Fold:
Amino acid sequence: MEDALRRLQLMGKIEGDISFMVRPIQSTKLHSWDTALQSIDPRVQAMGNQKIEKHFLGKWGYASILPAQLTQQYVTAQPYQELDGPMIASSGYQLMATAGVYAKLGPLTIQLQPQLVSASNADFRGTTQTPNYNKIFWGNSSIRLNAGPVSVGISSENITWGPSLMNPLIMSAHAPGFVHLTLNSRKPWRTPIGSFEWQWFATYLDAIEPKYNGIADYSNGDATKRRYFNGAMISYQPKWIKGLSLGVTRVVQEPESLFEDNKQWNLLFNNVARVNDASFNVEIQRDQYAAAFLRWVWQAAHAEFYTEWGRNDTYYTMRDFIQQPEHSRAYTYGFRKLFGSEMEAINTNLKTPKHYWQFISEYTRIQQPSTWPVRTAGSWYVRGDMPGYTQLGQIMGAPIGSGGNYQMMRISKFDGWKQIGLQLESTTHNAENFEDGGLAFTNPSVTKWVDYGFRILLDYPYKRFLFSTTLAVTRSFNYNWSQPATASGLGIGNPNDLDSYLLKFAIRFL
Structure:
């Protein structure tokens, strides 16, 4: 639904100064956005359920039932890393169900939307898993006090920062949400110099249950210990450049024991550089990430360009940063364009186009730069003794994980809420194994682990239901770096290449 709003923004149908850089969207305009979404197809009730809504105390309060969703998937071999929140990367059958209610009483809002996950967690090639994963999460639940553009509260909603559709570097919907204290904007704060959106939060991150450690992305350090986690982002839209959003993000995590010792609940401003003094021994225990992003919307062309650039290791001094800014960097850039005959007439027609095409391309590179033989940056999501940059064992940033590279292209045809799309994708896994293991000095066509695949995407509305289906096919060349020395590297007849299939089916009752 948020992606549909983002497409409507490219059409000029909703406010142009909403950056979509901090999600989930907290807004005072859900009902007006419902109207915009229903202009695509009036059968679809999007953000809430106005037909099952009860007002009380005049206009002071109301309650409504939120959309219910059931997602099922079956994976034949290698698990797929997806932006799917509490669902785990596993083989076999998996189910996620969610439903909830929303209530408002003056400035107070309460949302209860738990999630149930059940996965067979079957063994797959070269692994032995603990079967029958079952867990209930708070999901997209929150209690908030709201005033104007500001919202403060306690939430367990998934946080996504930045413009990336597939691989946000710092915060994404890949891992389960965590209960956190949040202070954030719920609509753009408009000033004489432009609009601002922001979020600050603090939380404890949970370790994975030891018996399910096999599904963890990383298990560096003591994976049974909690960590204190603090993060913030700000997005700015200059008044003088229409459609441009600029922003920065920063997060810091540290062992719970260190937090209990120093009680520094706001870590974002006192450890920007690791200067060589008495604080170094404290700073070396912390794990920190920062990124800058840009999104530029060209509504006249119904297109957008975006990029995000980040580092996972702070610089020692400003001289260090100037001399080698690429150390420990990662980046993403992407482009989206809507086109078709109805899009050509949109500027003279007040109606929302129902028939149009969409093209998306995105590239992410987390593999460390070519300077690694001189100064290695190691794994992007693993630093020091931390058990990874994870919540319950799943990375909170890009699903492709440490050292991964990713490229995708997607073409879709829309007819209202109907969509049929084809996506081509390529993923390089854990390139630090390729580099630090000395494989980079041999034949890379044999020694790299690369997945090539495609997806077919289908969305279909029927009455108050929205059905979504994904069929993905992937061939893993040199799966888990297991190819014999005599392999050709061409993927023809190599015994350790692996084919994997994903079938995902979701039903949303609106």
The longest helix spans residues 2-10. The longest strand covers residues 61-75. The two ends are 11 Å apart (CA to CA). The mean pLDDT is 86.
